[in-house]
Write a structure and sequence with these properties.
34 strands; single chain; 8-stranded mixed β-sheet; 36 helices; alpha/beta; binds adenosine-5'-diphosphate; binds magnesium ion; 909 residues
């Protein structure tokens, strides 16, 4: 810091077509400051000003106010003098005053930073000077009252007294409007404005105990320090933590000469976009207001009008306004001020070409002269993101690699699920919020039990939590809402797999299964009531919010084709049914990385045979039950192989503890006892016997196959026979048989022998053969450590990062919901490691396992099939680890394909 003091400037000037900074300096000047400098340098009409660097903010946080003011005072004063000479006005002058705006601006645009203060430098004397100079008393007093309002709120902390109260200044204005019988701010008379200024100052004195500062320099330093302070305000800190932005970034402060949009009917202000931020359509669009300042357009004080004639006509159509009425009363800027419009249009083109991206701009017209106040790469929907990038590529403005790098992977999600109608969403009432567990819009009637999901045509399954038994109901319901559980809870994982909207862990919900009610904030909802879920944001809405089908536009397909051109690592899918497999194929999956065979056993006709197998006391009994399961399982595999059309299919042998398959309700237990001709007590005993203290660490995975080899035998038979059957139909498939939960070499060896000898037996029986692989999951830390030994026997590895995370951290996936949110809130963990791979810790095991495996078998096929396979930062890590493929749920396949391409591109630059 000491060295900085001597060599580095802390204030960067811009204006009059020159600038000290440029758009590359966002870290130092903030996004807003860097772009103001750039615009100034390329000749845009930007009001002159200066930017105090983010480094000064960091110094302020370390050294305090006095030290920093001392360091920047001279630079600030001379920069103000520079504005004065460019504008021909003087700060604080009574005849010809300069007023400025003070604007915050971090390196990324961030809600929670200080709001802008406009018209700073005004006081009782200066306002008179402004009147004299402009000959516009209305404007001068309007500016003064705006200043006190903004400075009071932002710098002096004049906030509503409680959350039920309104802003103290708004209250005064409302009062006056009532008294005068007027509606709009623009209807105030000069006397009204003078009264408001007086009353505002009075309110400040009463609430803060201090007089409103009249000295312009005192006002300026007050605002600068307030911007610095806002970096550590609650809202900003919250937002920073959410996005992992470090505290030492700091914010810049922009001080800029005011230009006035509130000078009368030849003045105004507006915002515009070079393309449509919702659809991506290449049309210039935006809104403006005549005789208005700053945020009036977005604040909704008055209804703004459209900038282009086309936009205005489209608006009129929606608003059912006749063309004559529109042209007369709601003209576009294009019609009302054609010269200014032409100029603005030329700037928007210039800026978009300059930045090669869609721009979001702010402008102000002062007495017929146009000023540009801000530009930035505009925020956009997923659809717009794709269309804009593809259009820019076709226009030759960016190359293919850049096009792909411009994609925010998670935003593609929006394109894959039904979405809420945006206008309906605006009107909807949010009743609570949970975790955005699985994106998409869902609307339906509340049901509390999975087996009642088909009670209504559209239902939302509302549960405290879900279990494997709920699977069918979850599939029927339009959306799933749970009070408990995290992003990897059963509900969340299953819903994502199904591509179904799900909100989990909505703690505010009190669910009473007995009364079939859901209570939030004292409000009660009943079975059959409509609710709506936005799985992308976690918002839960009252009633029925209209949804629309997403349009998989042509550009989306083009982006995917382009991805595949650059991707090296392949993308497979986790699919348990032919239906899922087909969806994934349509999304471009190049094989299946995980088929969980247990899901096949939950369907009504199978669960019975499964239960009989589990309840059997003898090997013979078990084999008999398995014999019943064999044809069903075989036909499942045939369906999946067929759907994958020659792409590789990895099938995992039975994994979950048997306890999950047995009935836990008395009625079903009785039923089973009757069917099996055994006593109810025998069933109960078996259920009790299967219960485990730590089922996740219990009798599951290959431990099942090693204690009941006949299960492995049956599953192998089903797989190999299915492959041979398909071969006869001309469909080649190379099944990859995967042994779960291996920790020792012997565990794998035993399973491998069963698999290979069973296959050999079938080949003999059928007098035919198929190729197949036998590999293992690496999901127990010990397996990663022993990877070189295991690789001697295994044909492939697939990292099961869910279990690997669970066992490396020692966090039970099913119980982590109790402490993970608190850990994240306290910063003990940055993110949920079940959602985003812990590259630092668990990642070491993944790397080590891969390296050790390949040290023995150079071309060992390595993939990953945990939930992380569809999470962008994890996918990039897997690419860098040298994996052959990632496998994820069908609806994440396009995202993983994109990230695979991005990772490959990033690795070459
Ligand atoms: P935000 O980051 O919230 O957009 P801004 O600093 O951009 O805040 O400013 C808020 C509003 O005030 C914008 O409409 C902007 O155009 C306007 N504004 C900022 N500085 C000036 C200025 N010097 N003259 C006129 N209007 C300004
Ligand atoms: Mg702005
Ligand atoms: Mg596992």
């Amino acid at each position: 810091m000491e060295i900085l003091q001597d060599v580095k400037a802390r204030v960067y000037r811009f204006g009059n077509k020159v600038a000290d900074g440029n758009s590359k300096m966002k870290n130092l000047l903030g996004g807003k400051g860097a772009n103001l400098a750039e615009m100034s340098a390329i000749g845009m009409p930007v009001p002159p000003g200066f930017t105090i660097t983010t480094e000064a903010c960091t110094e302020y946080n370390l050294l305090g106010q006095d030290a920093v003011v001392e360091r920047i005072k001279a630079e600030v004063e001379s920069a103000i003098a520079n504005i004065e000479s460019l504008m021909g006005t003087t700060f604080g002058d009574k005849e010809n005053p300069l007023l400025v705006s003070v604007r915050s601006g971090a390196r990324v645009s961030m809600p929670g930073m200080m709001d802008t203060v406009l018209n700073l430098g005004i006081n009782d004397d200066v306002v008179l000077g402004l009147v004299k100079k402009t000959n516009n008393e209305q404007f001068a007093w309007d500016s003064y009252r705006r200043f006190i309002q903004m400075y009071g709120g932002v710098v002096l902390g004049m906030k509503p007294a409680s959350k039920e109260d309104i802003d103290p200044f708004e209250e005064i204005m409302e009062h006056l409007k009532d008294k005068r019988g007027i509606k709009l701010d623009t209807e105030f008379t000069i006397q009204d404005l003078k009264d408001l200024v007086y009353d505002f100052k009075d309110a400040v004195k009463k609430q803060t105990g201090h007089s409103f500062p009249t000295d312009p320099w005192e006002q300026l330093w007050g605002a600068i320090i307030a911007v610095f302070n806002s970096w550590n305000g609650d809202r900003a800190v919250y937002y920073r933590n959410m996005h992992n932005y470090p505290a030492d970034w700091g914010t810049a402060v922009n001080v800029q000469a005011m230009v006035y949009g509130n000078m009368g009917n030849n003045s105004g202000t507006g915002v515009c976009f070079t393309r449509d931020a919702g659809t991506g359509e290449n049309v210039f669009n935006g809104e403006y207001l005549i005789n208005a300042q700053g945020e009036d357009v977005v604040a909704g004080v008055r209804t703004p009008q459209q900038i282009t004639k086309l936009g205005s006509q489209r608006w009129a159509e929606l608003a059912k306004v006749e063309e004559a009425d529109r042209a007369e009363n709601y003209p576009s800027l294009e019609e009302l001020m054609p010269t200014i419009f032409k100029e603005l249009d030329s700037y928007q083109k210039k800026l978009e070409n300059h930045y090669c991206d869609m721009q979001d701009m702010e402008f102000t017209m002062q007495d017929g002269k146009l000023w540009i106040l801000q530009t930035r790469n505009g925020k956009r929907t997923g659809a717009a993101m794709v269309k804009i990038a593809m259009d820019l590529l076709k226009e030759g403005k960016i190359d293919e690699k850049e096009t792909l790098l411009r994609m925010q992977p998670n935003k593609l999600d929006e394109l894959l699920h039904p979405v809420f109608d945006t206008s309906a969403l605006k009107r909807a009432h949010v009743i609570a919020q949970g975790l955005p567990a699985s994106p998409g819009a869902a609307t339906g009637k509340i049901v509390f039990f999975a087996d009642e999901a088909n009670k209504f045509k559209n239902s939302i399954l509302v549960r405290i939590e879900t279990s494997p038994e709920d699977l069918e109901g979850m599939n029927i319901a339009k959306g799933i809402l749970t009070a408990r559980g995290g992003m990897t809870s059963h509900a969340a994982v299953v819903a994502r797999g199904m591509g179904k909207s799900c909100i989990s862990g909505a703690g505010a919900l009190k669910i009473n299964y007995k009364t079939r009610t859901l209570t939030v904030d004292g409000h009660e909802y009943h079975e059959g009531d409509w609710i709506s879920l936005n799985g992308s944001t976690g918002n839960i809405f009252e009633g029925k919010v209209e949804t629309v089908e997403p349009e998989l536009s042509g550009e989306f397909g083009e982006i995917m084709t382009l991805s595949d051109k650059y991707a090296i690592m392949k993308v497979r899918t986790n699919a348990d049914t032919p239906k899922d497999a087909k969806i994934a194929r349509n999304f471009g999956a190049q094989g299946i990385g995980l088929t969980r065979t247990e899901h096949m056993f939950f369907e009504v006709d199978r669960i019975k045979a499964m239960r009989e197998m589990i309840l059997a006391d003898t090997v013979k009994g078990r084999k008999q039950a398995l014999q019943d399961l064999l044809p069903m399982q075989r036909s499942d595999f045939e369906g999946i192989f067929e759907a994958m059309q020659g792409f590789p299919v990895t099938i995992r042998l039975l994994d979950p503890p048997l306890h999950e398959f047995v009935p836990h309700q008395l009625a079903t237990q009785k039923e089973l006892a009757d069917e099996m001709h055994i006593s109810l007590q025998a069933v109960k005993n078996k259920v009790a016997e299967l219960e485990e203290f730590n089922p996740m660490l219990g009798h599951r995975g290959c431990r099942l196959g090693n204690t009941y080899p006949e299960i492995t035998e049956m599953q192998t038979r089903a797989i190999i026979e299915a492959a041979i059957n398909l071969k006869a139909k001309g469909i080649v498939c190379i099944p990859e048989i995967m042994v779960p939960l291996v920790g020792t070499v012997k565990e794998f060896e035993y399973q491998e022998q069963i698999i290979r000898s069973t296959a050999a037996k079938i080949f003999e029986e059928r007098n035919d053969t198929v190729e197949f692989l036998v590999g293992t999951m690496i999901e127990i830390p010990r397996a990663a450590l022993m990877a070189d030994k295991i690789a001697e026997l295994a044909d492939f590895f697939s990292f099961g990062t869910n279990d690997l995370t669970q066992m490396t951290f020692g966090y039970s996936r099913d119980d982590a919901g109790k402490f993970l949110p608190i850990y994240i809130e306290k910063g003990i963990l940055k993110v949920d490691p079940f959602e985003v791979l812990d590259q630092e810790g668990v990642g070491q095991l993944v790397k080590m396992g891969t390296e050790r495996g390949r040290s023995v078998k150079q071309h060992l096929k390595v993939g990953i099939c945990g939930e992380h396979g569809g999470e962008p930062s994890s996918v990039e890590f897997f690419y860098n680890t040298g994996m052959d493929y990632v496998s994820c749920s069908p609806y994440r396949v396009p995202i993983a394909r994109l990230v695979s391409a991005q990772a490959a591109i990033k690795a070459t630059v």
